[in-house]
Amino acid sequence: METSIWHALLYLVGILAFAGLNAAYLGYCERKGAARIQRRSGPTEVGYAGLLQPLADGIKLMSKQLLVPKGVDGIIFRAAPILAMVPAITSMAVIPFSGNIQARAMELSVLLLFALAALAMFAILLGGWASGNKYALISSTRAVSQTLAYEIPMLFTVITVVLISGSLNLQDIALDQQGGFWRWNIFRIENGHFLTMWISFLIFFICTIAETNRAPFDMAEAESELVAGFMTEYGSMGFGLFMMGEYLNIVVAACLTTVLFLGGWDCPLGLIPGVWWFLIKIYILIFTFIWIRWTFPRTQIYKLLNLNWKILIPFSMVNLLITAVLIKVF
Amino acid sequence: MGTENLPTSIVRFAQLDKLLNLGRANSLWPMTFGLACCAIEMMCTGGSRYDLSRFGAEVFRPSPRQSDVMIVAGTVNKKLELAVKTLYDQMPEPKWVIAMGNCAISGGPFKFKGNYNVIEGVDKLFPVDVYIPGCPPRPEALLEGIITLEEKITGKRRWPRVYAS
Lengths: 330, 165
Ligand code: SF4
Prior knowledge:
The structure holds two protein chains of two kinds.
Chain A: H1 5-37, H2 53-62, H3 74-91, H4 109-130, H5 134-165, H6 170-175, H7 194-211, H8 223-226, H9 236-261, H10 275-293, H11 301-329
Chain B: H1 14-26, H2 37-46, E1 69-73, H3 78-90, E2 96-100, H4 101-106, E3 130-132, H5 139-154
Bound molecules: iron/sulfur cluster.
Residues 36-38, 74-75, 101-103, 108-109, 135-136 of chain B line the site of iron/sulfur cluster (SF4).
């Protein structure tokens, strides 16, 4: 892959545009989706079918007073929202959107992605800590315990994928699954991997929901208990950046699930692979995220942790063991 | 209008101001905040029959830092006075207030000689932009109130007013 300055610039602009558009319009999609699920019609009056709604919200948020309350830790308070955006955008650099659309091919891209995903948690922790508000602090500690706990089964399931493909490179993992849906990791027929991989997929999907702090696991911003969680003291664009960071994390999670389990840019019937299949798959996954959010009520923090420590971790460990045995036997 | 308290700049950008006002008018996020029976009517406005979200105003934010309009829906009594005032002070500019229902406008049914603890109108506490009369006002009335607030911000009305014949 050539690494000229134009290549880098092109991908920089492309990724920023993709990230910005997604962050803005996923908010719109979420409001529309919520409305449809609740038999409403959602934003319709601002622009055609409400399509200018994100623009209006953006203008409103940017022109609102920047309020730094008394008693906050100024520097960290201002840095936290930016820190919420940066890891999500950075991780898009290693995601292979198709065979030849990838900003940077790296050998250890899976590891890099998970390191960055863990970094996103720090934004919440720092934001909650610097706010000097008890609700924000409680929320951020909750977010940390939740993220730490859910990293474990998530990584176990990723190891199963890595074992099957024998590589930590996202590009190789995706290439390994080309040629029809029966070669995708989730339905993989050879060596009988489909016996365990659909469980891996389920565990991974539940973990991504918890990692991105989405309902039913959005303990960090439980309105009924914690005002607005770690965002309580953030107004205007600080809040906007946190929201955009959340949506970008969802996009990255969907991309990762697609590459690891759903064959990346592969066509289900093995016909014409291409970036459009990748986009179709991630938007189906994102729609599932929205669907789940507006269908299930929020759980409680100890139920959430029980689910993780008592169910997901044992299952993912046994799953890993069986996968390894299957690989060894066949 | 709530923007009056902002420091005015020497250079003014008429078109930019218009754009900002359009943006603000089309995303009025109310505060999750209900005080009495009128709040039920406010919830109904957010529900599927009247659907506040059509105007981009359904994002009820739980924190005052993120909300633009405070819908005072219900009775404010002496004990609550401080809390309501604090919430108003915690909202960043530009902010607007809608007094919903007779209680918030003037004390409503509680305004009588022996009244000892009900605030007779929230405009005693802070400036109010739109008054919506009724006990309680119907959801259509709240929608009309929000459209009136938009008209107040942008200077233009979204739809022509229809008078009952
Ligand atoms: S105006 Fe009427 S309906 Fe509204 S809070 Fe007062 S008493 Fe209740």
